[in-house]
Amino acid sequence: MKEEKVLISTRALTKRFGQKDVLRGIDCDIKVGEKVAVIGPSGSGKSTFLRCLNLLEIPSGGVVSVDGEVLFESELTAKKDNLEAIKKQIKLLISGENSEEVKAHRAEAGELKKELEKTNSLLKEGSTKVKLLKVKLARGTGSVTQEDLDREQANLTSLGERKAELKTRLAGVNAKIKQKKSEAKALLDKDELARLKAAKAEAQEQYLKAKKAHNASMKKTNASIDEHRRNMGMVFQHFNLFNNLTVTENIVLAPLSLGLKDVKAKKKQLLKRKLKGEDVSEQLAALPTKLELAENAKATARRLLKRVGLEDKADVYPSTLSGGQKQRIAIVRALAMNPRVMLFDEPTSALDPEMVGEVLEVIKELAEGGMTMVIVTHEIGFAREVATRVLFIDEGIIKEDAPPAELFGAPKDARLKEFLSKVL
Ligand SMILES: Nc1ncnc2c1ncn2[C@@H]1O[C@H](COP(=O)(O)OP(=O)(O)OP(=O)(O)O)[C@@H](O)[C@H]1O
Ligand SMILES: [Mg+2]
Hints:
Elements: E1 6-17, E2 20-31, E3 35-39, H1 46-53, E4 61-66, E5 69-74, H2 76-95, H3 100-139, H4 146-186, H5 190-230, E6 232-235, H6 247-275, H7 281-286, H8 290-307, H9 323-335, E7 341-345, H10 353-368, E8 372-376, H11 380-386, E9 389-394, E10 397-402, H12 404-409, H13 414-423
Helix pairs in contact: 2-5, 3-4, 6-8, 6-9, 9-10
The protein binds adenosine-5'-triphosphate and magnesium ion.
Family: Belongs to the ABC transporter superfamily.
Keywords: ATP-binding, Cell membrane, Coiled coil, Membrane, Nucleotide-binding, Transport
Pfam families: ABC_tran (PF00005)
């Protein structure tokens, strides 16, 4: 029986780094049991998408929910952009900068400035050269002649003339800009200005509202973030194992510390109830000891290691393992948290070719066992075989979302066709 319950869902998900819009509105539902492969060109935002799903990266805007519960929600960036855009329009209108003539002259001035910069750097180079030639000539080593020096000096003179000419032209263009701006200002469209000002007031209000909502939502996000991440196992391209810990120690590290934290929290709660006069001795006694927790975690580690065929590596250090073995351990480490979904970011792309198969095999078995997964991969054959759905991400947008047979067999999007022609 196929479950249709949506596990993770994103709406209008965006992420911006500085000025760069890396994710530009991702709407995506990942249902329980689905195996979603994510493909796309380098830099298109695939890793960022995965990292936003488990909130390793806090999105810039949109919604992320798990089990229908909103974990992140913000319109702040969008509202801020809107406000800034209106402010800019007003500024342009008032200053006369948005007149077509002013824009044309600005472009011209920009070109002249570039030219001027180039000339300046040539001048700098030239004068250094002249100085060197003079020194060499004074030493009389013979490799430099008076003609060399004369030629370089003539070059400098002509560059100087060019600079002066460019400066004059730039001054002329700037004067024109000034004049056209004041003409435009005199003709200022008062109605347009009034309209923009009203829009600004509205945008300002919306922005403040979004800010309040964002702050409230972030509080909620921060409160549930650990729980959320615990439910999502993540495997990266590089295994990130601790080399100073054995394989088992690597695997039990996180579950053990979380287990201890849980027990501590539960104990605290019980003691509170005890203070109120309740009899909680039975519950207190039932709490696992540190030793029991460790034994449990180790037993889980052994079971999982067996599952990936590495039970004999339990006590070795990662440095003695091959890349493929390390990656299988990294998968076990993620599984040890008993996650509800596994996120893989190019789990095989750092491996030697002969080791790719053993790692893909483990992932395939997990998939067949019913694990929900999202996997960014360049292994098209694997995606075709294992994925129930493939997303093609390009320039921060899902351009195509279809079952593998359809997406690979009959791609619709032009960029996808181009991408596939390169990787197939
Ligand atoms: N922390 C960051 N700070 C600034 N820019 C970032 C950051 N992380 C990612 N980027 C930029 O975001 C864009 C998308 O990066 P991302 O790693 O998501 O791409 P990708 O699709 O996974 O690419 P690849 O196939 O090469 O792994 C890139 O231009 C990258 O430089
Ligand atoms: Mg990536």
